[in-house]
Structure formats: C-alpha cells, structure tokens
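hiii so my PI (J.) wants the whole complex modelled not just the main chain, which honestly fair. so below is everything: two entries, each one labled with what it is. i double checked the lines twice but i was tired so who knows lol
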Amino acid sequence: MTTATMTVTWTAICSYARLEAERGVAALVDGVQLAVFRTFSGELFAIGNRDPIAGAQVMSRGIVGTRGSAPTVASPLHKQVYDLRTGECLDVAGVAVPTYAIRRIGDTVEVAVDKR
Amino acid sequence: MTKRLVVAGYGMVAQRFLEAFAEREADGWSVTVLAEEDRPAYDRVRLSAWFDDYDAGALHLGGAPDGVAVRLNEAVTGIDRDRRVVHSASGETPYDALVLATGSRAFVPPIAGADLPGVFVYRTLDDLAALKDWATAGGRRVGAVLGGGLLGLEAANALKLLGITTHVVEFAPRLMPLQVDEGGGAVLKRHIEALGVTVHTGRGCAGLTGDADGVQQMLFNDGGSLDVDVVVVAAGIRPRDELAEPAGLVRGPRGGFTVDATCATADPAVWAIGECAALSVDSGDGVCYGLVAPGYAMAEVVADRLTGGEATMARPDTSTKLKLLGVDVASFGAPFADGLDVVVTDQVTGVYAKLLLTDDAKTLLGGILVGDASAYPTLRASLGGPLPAPPLALLAPAGDGSPKAELPGTAQVCSCHAVTKDHVTDAIAGGCTDVPGLKVCTKAGTGCGSCIPLLKQLLAAGGVVQSKALCEHFTYSRQELFDVIRVRNIRSFTELVSAHGTGRGCDICKPTVASILAAVNNGYILDGEEAALQDTNDHFLANIQRDGTYSVVPRIPGGEITPEKLIVIGEVARDFGLYTKITGGQRIDLFGARVEQLPQIWHRLVDAGFESGHAYGKALRTVKSCVGETWCRYGVQDSVGLAIELELRYRGLRAPHKLKSAVSGCARECAEARSKDFGIIATERGWNLYVAGNGGFRPRHADLFLTDASTEELIRTIDRFLMYYVRTADRLQRTAAWLEAMEGGLDHLRAVIVDDALGLCAELDAQMARHVGSYADEWHATLQDPERLSRFVSFVNAPGTPDPDISFEVERGQKIPVRGPVPVTLGGAR
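here's the output for the full assembly
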C-alpha cells in the first residue's frame, strides 16, 4: 500500500504592497506563468496568465471588477470575463483558466504551483 | 417561357417598383429598365441636399435589384401596342408587361425670355449642376424664383446657398397656395423674409429680358421690374405623357396616362405609376399626384398585380411635411374642406396651426402647421377618426402631451408604406424592441422618416423600456455619469461607485469612468486608483496585439516629419527588432514590443523630440493633411499648418471613442477630410468645416457645418463640437452615431454650439481651454517617475525575463507573430 504525499511548495513572488488594488501582475514560477490579483477588499487570487481563447499570456493585464458577487477579471484581448475564485469563464461555457493557491505571510505574497 | 417586363423611366417610383417586384420573387420574368437620365434612380425629394456638399452619390437610392437590366441614357421614344414593343435609341425592346414610370417635367409658362441663358428649372441633378455653374460663375448677384410653392422655396434656398440675393415671385396671394391657407401663408412669409429672401406675393411675371450673355430683367404684370442675373422657374410640374397619343393611350383631363384603381391603362399589358399616371379612384377622376408616397403605393399595387395579387389603390393621402429654408411646414388631409376649424396663431414664435373638424367636431378632416410641425405624426395618423385629445392640447408646443396611445388601431402611422398602428403594435408584441427593429419588421419609418417620433412613442406605450444603463454597476448612461461626476466634483471611481453604483465595476464602466475623469480633471491618467480603471492599452500607453506584445505610435502631427526624426524611428525599430508599418493616419506604427521594452523604446523616442500619439486611447488620433498651398499647385490654404495646429490643440483629449480629423488644402480633398469626425476643406475665402463623418464598419460622409470660416471661428466651433460630444455621447459612440441619434440633428447641434441656445458655450470653451492648458505628454511624464515606470515589467518576480511564450517568424524581411494554430474568436460574448 502506498501513501500519496502532497507536497505544497510555496514560492514568494513579491511584497503585498507591490500589488495595486484591482490591477494584476504576472509572475513566473517554475516555468509557469501566473496572473496575480489583489481585489479592492484586499483578497488575493492567482490564476493562469494564458488567455485560453486567444492563446496569449495576458490575463494579468485585464480589468478587475465584479459580476454579481463574483470577483472577476476580463481578458484584455477580447473581454471574456473569468471568475477569479474558480477560473471559470462566465461568458463562454466550458472555458476556464487554472487557479493556484496564494497566501500572504506578513508583507510577502506567496503562490503554490501544484506540479501534478 | 420567360415573360418580359419593361419599365419606362427610372426615378424614385420605378426604383420602388423594382424593389417591390423583386421582393415578391416571381419566377419567369426578365426585367429591363429604360432610363432617360444618365444615372440610376436618386432621391428627388431630397434633391436640394445636393447643395450641401455637391455629392450626387449621397442621393443614390441603392440601384436596381439583382438581375434587372438597366439601360441608362436610353429613353423610350414610342410604344407599338399591337406588336408589344417599345422603341428607343438602340431599337426595339419587346414586352409582355410595360410599366410606364416616366414622371414629370418642369412646367415653364409661355413667357417671353424663358429661353434666355441664365433661366433654369429645378427638377434633375443636371438642372441643379447647371444652375450652380451659372450662379457661381462670378458677377451673378441677384436671382428670382418664379413660383412660391414647395419647389420654389427649395429653389430659393439653393440660390441663397449659392450666395445670391434671392427674390421669390408668386402669382397667388400667398406662399405655398396648394398646401397652406392665408393665415399659414402669412406666418410662412414672415419666416422666409426673416432669412433675407424678398417675397413678392400676388405678382405675376410678364416676361424676361436679356441677351445672349444672359437674363437681365424680370418684368411684372403690374408694371414693375427687377434686375436679375439668374432666374429659376418653379411654376409646377406636368406629367411626361408624350408617349400616350401616338400609342393610342387615353390621357387624363390634366394630362397623364389614364389608369384605374389597379394602375392599369385600357390596355391590360400597359400600366402607369407615379407622377405620369392619371389615377381614377373614388371621386377623383384622372388626377396626377406630384408626391412620392402615392407613387410608391402605385408601385406596390402593380408589383402585386403582376405577381397574381389583387391590390388596388385607395385614394392617395396627400399629406406632406417638409422643412423649407429651415421652417417646418405640414399640410394633411383636406385642410380646405368645409367644417369647423380650430386656429392657433402665435406671432411671437411664428407658429401657425389649423385643424379642420367635421361639424360635430368629432372627426379630423385635415390641417395645416407652419413653424412647428411636431404634432404632425399624431395628427396625420388621426385623420378620418376621432381626435385623440382636445384640439388645443394637441397643438400645444411639444411637451410630452402627445396622447399617442389613444390613436385607433387602424390609424396609419407611416403613410409612405401604409403601416397602421395595429401593424406596429403587433410587431412590438412580437418582440420588436427598438426603432431599427420596427423598420425591418414593418417598413414603417423607412420612407420620409416623419413617423419615427411616433414609433418611439408606441414603443414606450408598449412597455418597451430602452435601458440606458451602462452596465450592471450603474443605472446611468454615460452622459448622466458625466454630469454626476462634474456636478458633484467626484474625483475617483470608488467615490462614484459607492455613492451611485453597485459592486466594483467591470471592463465596461471602468474605462468609461476613467475617460470621464480624464476629461473633467485633465490629469495624468495613471496615478492612484485611476490606473486600475484603464484598459491595458491606456495602462501601458501602447496598443496590445494578438500575441500580447504591444505596438508603439509616436505622434507625427499632420504627417509632417523631418529626415532626422525618420532616421530615429528607423534606428529604434532596427535596434529593438520591431515590425514597422505606415498607418492610415500618416504615421508609423512599430509592432512587437514587449512590456518591459516600452520604457526603453520611449526613452529614445522622447529624447529625439517625439511624444505619445495616443493610438492606444479613446482620444484624438491624427489630423491628416495633404501638402496644401505650401507645395501643391492647386492648394489654396496652408492645410499642413492648420492640421498641425489642430492636432497639437486636441492631442490627449479623452473622448467616448477615438477621434480622427483631416485637413485638405483645396476642394480636391486629397486628405479625405469628409470621412473624419471633423474634417476641414480649404476654400478661397477660408475653411469649410464638416462634422460627424467616419470610415470604419459603416462609413458616413461628414456633414457641412461651416462655410468659408476664418481660422479663429473654425477652431472655436471645433472646440465646442468636441466638448459637447465628450459631454453627451454614449460609451463607444462615435460622432456620426452621436449626431444621428441627436434629437433635431445638425440643427440642434448648430443651435447649441453656434447660437448658444442652451447657454453652454462659455462652459465648453472654458473646458477646452483647461484641456489645452494642462496637456502634458504621458510618455514624458511616465519616464520621469520611477514609480510609474515600475509597472513596465514582464514578471513581478523576474522583471527582466521576457515572456518565454512570445516567438516570431519572418515574413517579407520583418518579424511577425508566429502563425500558430491559435483559435481566434472575434468579439467574444458581447
């Protein structure tokens, strides 16, 4: 019998102060491109930086806002809106971006890229 | 076997007939049109619009449907009914059905001198062109129009536009004797005289004198005379029926081909429609109708009959509503019948209105409106039925008093297409939610357009709420948000959304609010919270491309550039490996720059004296120019100098959409100014200003707004035009759509920004002065500030590492994004 061990590796990417409210940044962690956002209320989210529809690494440059109660980002290329919590595209059924774990330790923001 | 349909004549009614016939998709017909003029059907109702811009193409009606053979310059000269052929210059054309749509000719009374040079009629585009050439040939100062009817007043307007001192001579005791009564004529006369036109009513012309060089004098039947350089005869029209007699067709009592209610002549294979038809229906015996709406109805009847239908003509509605020399005139129903009348004369505002009712005061028979015709759609639709409200309430100046919902269902809302209120309400119930939708479903509003206000009222009465909310976060339109921000002195999105909206915004409202804040506050657009509002283009001051790289466009005002600056652009492109392309706006676009390269690129450009071109912003792009009198042997003004002045004045102005402009140095228009939001064309005496044009998805020629303006007057007017647009347009609404949606259109715009009817001009001027005074180059400001520069990194944790996913290939010696199997969706969900 084997036991699966989940190793979560947290990587520091920047200071919390470096993140502007409602404006994303891109981060490069182990070759994976992430889009990292801080909402108006101070929540943090990390999703894949690649726009799954256009194929370019641009999600971090989208406009952050809300749709109903969902925190969102709109792709800067063709404006499809994604739920930051789930990565699900709210405009095109069946399309989604990956989401990543993110946390704040003191003033440091860390993300975990799950390498399954 | 294929049957042959021949149409003689190609005016508006023939065009309608061809469309109506094509719509019925009848098999087995070949259709041929023989036209006398050298161009396909054009909008003769709007003929005078040619004087606005001398663009005959703008009057074009769309041409013949597919499959129709059109033979221009080939009038039918005879009909052989026994052999069923028509004669024309090229020989014989056989027919199984012949539709006569030969229209009318201008009537010239038999007066001496009517054939002198300088005497014109007002019927075709060729007539207008000849009139213009004569009147503008130099030394022509005074003109007289013979005839004070509808056409005469149109012609008077044309003479005025050509700079001629204008007289109108009408034999009847009042202007427009067929449409208005004495009281209406008096009010109309005062309006026309206020425009500087001299009106002679109750005077006949006894003759014209002159010589081979042209007409010199008009002699009156009362013994007086008037020195004239040009005369326009607008004394009425006569049907073009000269084919009737040789062919053995019966003519009506006042001419025209006699037809019955099916529009057939006595020969079942020959039909006549439009102004050449003498229609016998109800009690009207052999009447020719000189209006387009009855002609259209006849066209529909014949198209229906030829395809197996049983349509017949009802007695035509001769209601008309026009704007003559800027004065509204409407006449509907039978305004001269016997009955009770209600007359309102307001000498102060120059408004006259008369309603004629049956003796029991229950049924509207007709009426006349002069000076204000806003009640016309409701009144015309109420003809023959009960009045929807007390007469005085109906005639009260436009408020929202119009009792639209109470029109009977059978009331005709659109007389051009015989669409009833029931048709319209059915369409609304069936899901039509706006005026364009109703136009498609019912055709209402696609003719003269006078019923469009009524359609809007019916939509509102049908419970259709046209939402003006910007998005889910704001119930306001852009214009309302602009006012809220300005009046309450709001400085940030957070302040706005917490007090006047919900949620935290989206990609629709945030850039809109950013644009309004920029227009109101004139600051750097990327400081503090404003940075988070901007689309990526404004955020990085560059244009995002499909692979996530950006393009860079330095400003090249007016398209003028020194060799040194050209070399710098070339060196920057070479050193950073950028794809280069000349844009449509006379500048150079550098593609393929990564985010972290943008500051380095701009450092080089700013050092060489370049500044941001705002290609990324909803802002002024370029003011294109031709080389003008500086070099060009045809140029009459310094178009490059003006283009540079304008581009520098309006650079950085944030607007609801991008703004483009151009300046041409002469009427040859090499800068294509009329396809711009504001375009300027040089004249010998100054500048002509055109507004609200665009290229793009739905091209629109700009409308003439100022003529021979001085540079000072020109700039003041553009200042106000732009600021009024910035204040009142919807999100992403370009000037063309903005103007088209504006109640009152160009007249309203002129009232606001030229005549200052809303008292706004001082504010608009001050707002533009603030913009011009506070302009600073965004890239220069960005490079000065380390904090602003800190945004331009590829990765927050690896600032210098390029995006590893960006790769290029080479095409025609330059690098381009790899054409991978990347799916491209256009437009997305919205």
